[in-house]
Write a structure and sequence with these properties.
alpha+beta; six-stranded antiparallel beta sheet; three-stranded mixed beta sheet; 20% strand; globular
Length: 200
């Protein structure tokens, strides 16, 4: 099975040939990783004889997988142009991210709601597409549905559990996040409104 066929299992098939070309052109090691809670994808610059390395989580829906892949390739391009002399998500990276998204807009790969979310996000891309709630909400709609809720859907003071079994009580919203108290240890944690939880 060639690269295009493998990539087409994780992203919209029409995008696979473009990403496959980028992998070859930049001589990049591209890895489809197990789910990592701390990040959706990762870029490592060449070091001690090794080349560019990109990894993207295997559990992302096709549109989230593609957006994350382009995000990481924008890091690669920025490293090629500037090495480590610029900020990781500075103006140079933002410019490259916008430029690298263009072929996928031209092919009309994204559904209207995701397209709209990306356009708004591109006006000022953040470090992670997850930090942009409009784009994150649009992308979430295309996840495989499980019996989960988002923290923002629960009433204040209700309790919920995480996949790891820990129990929490939802508190007030502070700016963009919710203060939630862990009922197992009494500590307070800040939750993204779109964090997936199980209602009690």
């Amino acid at each position: 099975m060639d690269k295009k066929e493998v990539l087409a299992q994780y992203m919209p098939p029409a995008a696979a040939p473009i990403i496959a070309k980028w992998i070859d052109y930049f001589q990049c090691e591209f890895k489809i990783s197990k789910n990592r809670r701390s990040k959706l994808g990762d870029y490592r610059h060449p070091f001690k004889g090794s080349g560019h390395k990109i990894s993207v989580n295997n559990n992302l829906n096709p549109y989230a997988f593609l957006v994350t892949t382009v995000h990481e390739f924008a890091h690669l391009l920025t490293w090629n142009d500037h090495k480590n002399k610029v900020k990781p998500h500075g103006a140079e990276w933002k410019s490259n991210f916008k430029r690298m998204m263009k072929p996928f807009f031209d092919l009309e790969i994204f559904p209207a709601d995701v397209n709209q979310g990306i356009v708004a996000y591109l006006n000022n891309p953040a470090a992670s597409s997850c930090t942009d709630l409009t784009l994150a909400r649009a992308l979430k709609k295309y996840d495989v549905q499980e019996e989960t809720l988002h923290v923002e859907q629960l009433p204040i003071h209700s309790t919920f559990t995480l996949k790891d079994g820990r129990k929490f009580q939802k508190g007030d919203q502070i700016r963009k996040r919710y203060r939630c108290t862990c009922l197992d240890n009494g500590r307070v944690y800040l939750f993204n409104p779109l964090a997936e939880v199980y209602a009690e």
